[in-house]
Structure formats: C-alpha cells, structure tokens
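not sure who needs this but someone in the group chat was asking about NADPH oxidase 1 from Homo sapiens so here u go. i didnt clean anything up, its just raw.
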Amino acid sequence: MGNWVVNHWFSVLFLVVWLGLNVFLFVDAFLKYEKADKYYYTRKILGSTLACARASALCLNFNSTLILLPVCRNLLSFLRGTCSFCSRTLRKQLDHNLTFHKLVAYMICLHTAIHIIAHLFNFDCYSRSRQATDGSLASILSSLSHDEKKGGSWLNPIHPHITPTVYMFTVTFDMVLSSVNSNLFLFLLIKK
C-alpha cells in the first residue's frame, strides 16, 4: 500500500482536484439558479429542475473542454520532452492520458443523463402549469403573455395551440436522438 501511494500520489491528487472542480461547478451553478432573485418566477414554474439542468450543463461544458487535452499528441510531446519542469512524476501522469480521457468521457455521459432527465422534468412542469386551472402562481405565470396580440408566452414556451403531448414527444425524441448520437461518438472514442 505504501509503495502504491508513493508511486501514484500525483494521479490521485490530480483526480481529486478534477472531481473537486466538477463538484464545485455543479454546486455553485445549482445554488446560483436556486437562490437568485432573477430566476424566482421561473423557479415557481419549474422547481429545482432548472438549477439541476443548468448546473449539469456547466459541468458538461467544463468536461467537454477537457476531453481532447489528454489525447493531443503535440501537447503531450511538448510537456514530456522540452519542458524543464517536467519531472518524473509528471511524466508518469502523462502516460495515463487515455485513462483520464475515458474518465472525462464517463463524466460527460453522467452529466448528459442528468441534463436530459432535468429537461424532461422541465417539460412536464411547463405542461402541467400550462394546463393548470387552480389559480396557482405557476398557472398564472404560464398564462402571462409577452405580446397579448400574438398570444405568445413569456415564461412558458409551451403554447396553448400546440398539444403538450405532441410538443413533449417531439422535443424528447430530438433530445434522445442527439444524445444517442453524441454518446455513440464518445463510446467510439473510448473504444479506441
């Protein structure tokens, strides 16, 4: 056990920092959208799913910027050979570049699933608040119109002339199709 810690301390530290950044970004974005006054009315319609979708989207952006760095050969060659600060410990870490690339891909898949599920709940909340007739704040906000003549909704993108089931099916099908396409691409990258 002692030799493993001596040999892999930098890898463990690097992974802990990367996971910590993911957790920090998710929690920070979640609290921003959950507590900010400018999202108060949208939260009344959607609940916490708005914050969950936005937080996972931020983590998706962060990990999508990182996924190609471990497989950039020129960058790895530069760090290995020409940098004087590149110690043996860092060179060992650079040899595990594909492992980190796979971990980032798994994190992207996880946040993609969270993002899609949160948006599915968003559409359900939008649909329920549009159909509600109980006089709750969510139903009143859904009936507010940005332009009374055109009848467009300002807070709720589901319009009364579109059947919510058809709208939700169309959007869900589009989201699932694009997710399967991107996850298939990530799966093919992982297999290499």
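also The helical segments are 2-35, 40-46, 49-66, 73-82, 88-94, 97-131, 137-143, 164-191. if thats useful
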